[in-house]
Amino acid sequence: MVLLIVGLALIEYFAFSALAGKARATYGVTAPATTGHPGFERRLRVQQNTLEQLIIFIPSILIFQHYWNANLAAVMGVVFILGRFVYYRGYVEEPGKRSTGFAIGMIAQMILLIGAISGAVMQLFK
Description:
about 130 residues; mainly alpha; Four Helix Bundle (Hemerythrin (Met), subunit A)
């Protein structure tokens, strides 16, 4: 189940990338520019921030499920994915509305990361 969740998170990232690309065309922001119309910049920022979060999320969920519980890891993965979607919707509408989605995803990530690290540390003392 955890691998399916990781795959879904990657599909979500791919969708955010496609939406940023579409916004680039819609608003006439030619590559390699990363600034221009606010609608493009917001979508690009969601894509970039999601990539930054995936670097923490993917290893954390894999390590967490190894030491603890795959079902709980999967639930936290779904929470992370939903948080990223809420983040996208809020940020695109108004950057100030991104905080709720960011917090949802961050809480899920912190549970996974702390669980992963604590599981690894506990393994050292077995």
